[in-house]
Amino acid sequence: MAGYLLKNCAAIIVDEGSGPTVRRNADLLTNGPAIQAIGANLSQETLPADTIIQDASGWFVYPGLVNTHHHFFQCFVRNRADLDWTKLSVIEWLDRIYPIFSRLNEDCFYHSSVTAMAEMIKHGCTTAFDHQYCFPRHAGKRLIDRQFEAAELLGMRFHAGRGGNTLPKSEGSTIPDAMLETTDEFIADCARLIDSYHDAGAFSMRQVVVAPCQPVNCYRETFVESVALARDRGVQLHTHVGEGESLVIEARYGMRTVDYCAELGFAGPDTYYAHCWELTHEELRKMTASGTGVSHCPEPVYLVGAEVTDIPAMSHFGLRIGLGCDGAASNDNSNLMHCIHSAYMLQCLAASTRAHPVPAPADFLNYATVGGASLLGRSDIGRLARGMAADLFAIDTRRMDYVGTRHDPLSLIAKVGIGMPTDLTMINGRIVWQAGELIGLDEAKLFAAAEAALETVNF
């Protein structure tokens, strides 16, 4: 793999472990999958022979974004007025949408994954976690295998959350029978995927997360066995918590969801939850004490309309925070860059109702980078520094869009927002998107194949 020298970068967001700083008028050198050097006037005479030099004048270079919660398959149910959940509770919405999900076939899962990851790459995301919990019986068990295939095609660093649902509708879940699995089925396939794909080494491109969908739709034993498997194999744990189900869990088990998960051992530094918008301050303190993190998905908050996630309190208590797009059924896009802006603006809107101040704009960039890396258990991504993975994106700020903004690169994305794709996205030292093209791929053919797969499903 060739190395790259990005010359004359207008700004590089550097973080050597003590927080991000802006390095002005500097160069960045990669060597294989890693960053070799960041500094002024790096000598071209001493570069390896296969180094490709790129003029980066005017570029702001950022660490690649880390998406910590998504449902790729939902890209095939976007922009549908009949699924507008602003008029429904979360549980009512799930009752309506799960029967639609149950009709998807294996090709749908592959092409929706290509669709989601391509959009993320265009907008600076270099590591993607997907929570794939939809396993219609007719679609088979190799859906996550196809996701790894899609990630390899695009060059995406991919963490696969093997989800599943085990509680039948007759016992209080929202899951159609066609999407149910037994706990044994679920755990066996998690183990298969870990054995087949999980790589815990430096700069790993493939990891597996044990991720039962949510407590409200699974038997207790599903979570108990998930904890046992994940701890035995040394992989992360993930699930949905605090998005309207706590009263249901309390009625079933006599405790709200955070305490229920903690009692089962589904909490700790190797665990993170998605959403958490309905949690109390006491529950947030408990999560902080256990080391459990949260993936904040800001854009679905607009649609749910129930409560704005209390990010100021989470930050105040020291909770580990990452950002996620969430599934396209509740967001309609896969643009984590946009989520940084949404997350900050949403908290500003709710500031008058909060006990703690809104975190600084630059903190929201941190949530989408080093914060996300922490949730995924990664110390080799999320920052630009010597020895870190060469995951980055660049924006050419020599445009009218950025007049008056260039003095503060750290706050730019959260406060101003980025309304266009990046000029370059690099993953693991390889340029995968540049100048409007997915490198080495024919986007028109990818589009046509995805549309053809979508047409095979009778919605």
UniProtKB/TrEMBL annotation:
<keyword id="KW-0614">Plasmid</keyword>
<feature type="domain" description="Amidohydrolase-related">
    <location>
        <begin position="60"/>
        <end position="432"/>
    </location>
</feature>
<dbReference type="InterPro" id="IPR032466">
    <property type="entry name" value="Metal_Hydrolase"/>
</dbReference>
<comment type="similarity">
    <text>Belongs to the metallo-dependent hydrolases superfamily. ATZ/TRZ family.</text>
</comment>
<dbReference type="InterPro" id="IPR050287">
    <property type="entry name" value="MTA/SAH_deaminase"/>
</dbReference>
<dbReference type="InterPro" id="IPR006680">
    <property type="entry name" value="Amidohydro-rel"/>
</dbReference>
<dbReference type="Pfam" id="PF01979">
    <property type="entry name" value="Amidohydro_1"/>
</dbReference>
<keyword id="KW-0378">Hydrolase</keyword>
<dbReference type="GO" id="GO:0016810">
    <property type="term" value="F:hydrolase activity, acting on carbon-nitrogen (but not peptide) bonds"/>
</dbReference>
<protein>
    <submittedName>
        <fullName>Amidohydrolase</fullName>
        <ecNumber>3.5.99.3</ecNumber>
    </submittedName>
</protein>
<dbReference type="InterPro" id="IPR011059">
    <property type="entry name" value="Metal-dep_hydrolase_composite"/>
</dbReference>
